[in-house]
Amino acid sequence: MRLRRFAMLVVLVLMLPLTGFAASRPTVTILAFAQGFAWPELFGSTGLERTEKLAELEDRLGVNIEIVWGDESTVRMKALTDLIAHTGRYDILMVGSDGGVQLYGWGGYLEPLDYYLENYPMEWFDPKEVFPKFLDANRMPPGGPLYALPYYSFGAGMIYRADIFERYGLTPPDTVDELFTVLQKLKEGLEKDGLDMYPITMRAAPGEEPSLDLLGFVYAYAGYPAIFEGGAVTIEEIKKTKAKPILNSEDFKKGFTAYVEILREYGPPGASNHTWVDMMNLYAAGKAVILMPSAINGYAAITITEDPAVKKYSRFALAPKGPSGKRIQSFWTFSLGINADSKHKLAAWKVLSYLCGREAIQAFAERTGWPNVPMRSVLYSQNLIDRYGLEQIELNEESIDIAEPYYFPYIPELPDFMDKIGTACSRAVAGEDIDKVLDELQLWALDRMFKAGYYR
Amino acid sequence: MRKTSLWEKDKYRFLIPTVLVCALLVSFPFVYMLYTSTQYWIALRPERSFAGLGNYRSVLLSTEFRQSLLTTVIFVISSVAGSIVLGFALALVLNEKFRGRNVIRALLTIPAIIPPAAAGFTWKFLLNRDVGLIGGFFLPLLGVKRALLGDPGWALFSVILADVWCQTPLMFLILLAGLQAIPMELFDAARIDGAGFGQVLVRIIIPLLKRVLGLAVIIRFIFAFTTFDVIFTMTGGGPGIATQTLPLLGWKTGFLYYDLGQAAALAVVMLLITVFFSSTLVRMVKL
Amino acid sequence: MKLEGRWKLFGIVFLVIYLLFSLVPIAWVVISSFKTHYQTLIMPPKLFFKPTVTAYKNVFLGGMGKVFLNSTKVAVIDIFAAMVFGIPAAYSLARFKSGVTENIGFWLLSLRMAPAFGVVIPVYILMRRFHLLDTTVAVNAAHLLINIPFAVWLLKSYIEEIPVEIEESALVDGATRFQTLVHIILPVSMPMVVTVAILIFIFSWNELFFAFVLTSSEGMTVPVLVASLAGSMTFNWPLLCAISVCSMVPAFVFAFVVQRHIVRGLTLGAIR
Prior knowledge:
heterotrimer, A: alpha/beta, D-Maltodextrin-Binding Protein, domain 2, 2 domains, four-stranded mixed beta sheet, 51% helix, globular, B: mainly alpha, MetI-like fold, two-stranded antiparallel ribbon, 13 helices
């Protein structure tokens, strides 16, 4: 009897620190999209698993981790309702470098991370490992506080079919003039040979999606971000010089027109409704010779295709130079920031630095096979070199080196601009008159900027 | 008269709990929506001021609103008409007794039970000019080589088709239930008179089903007017804004541009439009 | 009613064509769920391919159980709530006609007319006030506002067709109003009650906005999962198809089992 009581006591005493420990563990909740291919090593390929690795991580950090997934549209609603109500229910938010960082960062809804980087360095995240440009993309205003860390990230480029290029005696174009020549030759050749392929696939679905690529064209043609007068990209510059939008100017129009013309002439017929998924599908099915300038979508295609030719002959090349000498851009990071209303900021920082840390990025590269990672060490990991060859990896690094993160304005109105510009692109690709579309776009932009009080 | 007297003491007894619960739930959101619509309020920005009817003016004067309204009208009329006609026809056929009827009835409900977001994505994929079963295989066999979703007119048609596909089963179920209320004796009597099916349809079924039919139209109208998921995943409103209906515009205004004042104003305008049309319909069919 | 002669032929042809239209996309979803993503892209489609169950494996090993449980809970409570609040109201509106009740009736119908994007924020604030966020109660409450209008109106229109004499004899016999409703009106209205139940089940099973905004990790329902996998950031088509198929099975079973009750209430014919 006494022995049993003793045993129970021992068990209880042993359990005490355990329960205390469990109770004091803060819960960090993440709100994100890209369910299934973000952190598959932690949440499985449905995003709902709780893997052993996740449990291990929780123990290691002393934090419970919850993740809430949604598609972009619903995540937006959820994030907004929550930020307005200041509940701090989500500690870590997924924010793209093409709107989220600018809007939430500027509004004070995200916690600046510089302080944490300095005072709470984490062994699994070394900022020096990250390509500086991917960090720059998450500063608002440019050069200002860092609001988010990059997870998977990419620069511009083109994925092309070396076998088809060889067949017609072509080499990857270095300028946009050469690009047009290549496309024309491909079109004629494919037609003559009766090959069921399009010379190129790009995206033009309505909404923000195509803007990332389209504005890259505008930048390459104009030689500067030709969205506001004088290429102003920050709130300060726009206010100081009272820079107006120039969306129907010659400078903007050149790049816009080139993008639209390429799709009308050489792209798939349904491009005005194509998102990155359609770009990827077409290329994976072996129906497109070139995919650009968001080369990451080509990598997505290469890794899912079962078409031997696509698998064997796909190559990466730098995106062509525009008439200005600058190359076409498409630069984006999937970033994570900490909600300024979070009740467990330090715990959130630990989790965040893991989610964007070396281990997680390495796991991403290995699971997806995409070389679109923000860390040099991961880009040059054996796994990726074996897959694509050293020379291709070096080209990928170069595409990041020559990238210009600020090829679009860093203002809180950016999400609206991205959406409107992308939708204008979709309209033009579907056949509407370019001048008419751009005039309407310009009117809207002027109104938007005046309302936002930039020109007072 | 007897009817009323019988009811005198129970007048509202059965109605009050429902009304109370609904009023409790709806009053705050409704007042909040009205209030927001009178504010200049871009979410996540500090400034917020009284706008009077300014938001309504911005909404009603914008060309995008007018274009979306037109798209919505086309969408709603075609989708309502399509699903009611098809649903009614199905209900008539499946009101017959034959073997396998229950299985077919259940099979017909499937398009309604697929999650709308998946339905939109499925149709988008199916209609793809290159990798879709319909757009990339069946249609080319018939000689149609255009990309339906890349063409403004055809994209709207496709979205309507997908919505009719999803919604017809619901109309079918409602009308089938309605048909059960028609006494068999009437059909027998008509048969003895030597009336054909066409005459039975026009003289007996439609008049007797008028209320349920009218109600189905109203419900379907309200649903169609607020449809979001299917269109959003299928075309995102595109190409351009060719398939952008008012709910998509509202979602964009509120959750993409964060202009909550204007979004609320648009919601109120939509509410007024729906209330006006459905009350007219209710009066027309004397529900 | 009997379709005869050319009407019968019309009926058969129409049914066959409609079934094709209706089921080809579904069949394609089911077949795609057994393919790899690449195989779904190949046109013309291969009739013979090596099926893979990877997608289903992911679904079942991927913690989907909780999601289905949530959806079931929401749907069952939705049906229950709509019936409890809907049937008496419908009965009352059908049997007592006056300007006031007609206005109340229309007001109830109008609850469904507010577009979701306009009310989702205040509903969220309201639920937060009552500390109901992240519970299925909040979702049920939001759904009630959407279900009540058409539950009440469909039942009302059906009850109106039932001759009032049946009840009167019962009332004369000393039955209370409630007993009359339960023992006489309800059995006769079964076809519509069942229809409404199916409609509400389908609706609840598929409702996305409120279910997602009002709950977080604990409350995820099937459509939220489907939407996040069908969203613009994802590309695993077979997985989406597999989840859609799994999502359709419970609703299909429910509809199949329940819809056989959509048949004439015997009493009704007897009394007319």
